[in-house]
Amino acid sequence: MTPRLVVLGLAAFLPVLAQAQAAPVPAVPPGAQQIAAAVLALPPEFRADARVLGYEAGKRGLVPLREGKGPFTCLASDPAAQGFHVACYHQSLEPFMARGRALRASGVKGDQVDTVRFAEVRAKKLAVPAHPASLYQLFGPPDAFDASSGTAPKAQALYIVYMPNATVASTGLSAKPAEGRMWLMFPGTPKAHIMFEPKM
């Protein structure tokens, strides 16, 4: 390649590089704020003892923000996400949830995460709860959490009960979402769970 082509190539590439460098890096909220927001998904009696995983500047993925003594692990809202989303799940779901995080961190995407997990459950390499297990979520717009009051007035609650391999027949629930009633997602799979949207 001639020097002139090298210069032209660099000239074409530099604006792209500058644009990439100018892309805003999402600010990571202080750990205490992430914890305060994450545990709001839980009923009040479980919040003080919940384990919390969140984000630290310069680190990829979730890191421990607070150890817990209770039965729940809470996941802080991703600073890079377009909306607010926190979730707290029962400790019996830990192997299944942790495996999902590990797969995504290794580059597995979308439905393939469940494809791998389901195969591992069938092969008895991955445990799922033997009894129903709760998961609480809050989701909403980016400003759903109000740090000054420690509340999330703009967030919507979602309550989930994991019942691995439950079916429409075994639960008597529809697999179609319907306002004001519970429904079953992923029936007949290790990820089967009942969804319910309570009023805040």
Largest sheet: 8 strands, mixed
Mean pLDDT value: 87
Number of strands: 8
Task: Tell me the β content.
Answer: 15-25%
Helical coverage, percent range? 25-40%
What tags apply to this protein structure?
single chain; 200 residues; alpha+beta; 8-stranded mixed beta sheet; 6 helices; disordered N terminus
Can you describe what's shown?
It is a single chain. 25% of the residues are buried. 30% of the residues lie in helices and 20% in strands. It starts with a helix and ends with a strand. The longest helix has 20 residues, at 3-22. Mean pLDDT is 87; it is low at 1-21. By secondary structure, the chain is α+β, with helices and mostly antiparallel strands.
SSE blueprint and pairings:
Elements: H1 3-22, H2 31-38, H3 44-47, E1 51-54, E2 63-66, E3 72-75, E4 84-90, H4 94-105, H5 112-122, E5 133-140, E6 156-162, H6 168-171, E7 183-185, E8 193-196
Parallel strand pairs: 1-3
Antiparallel strand pairs: 1-2, 3-4, 4-5, 5-6, 6-8, 7-8
Task: Describe the structure concisely.
By secondary structure, the protein is α+β, with helices and mostly antiparallel strands. Helices cover 30% and strands 20% of the residues.
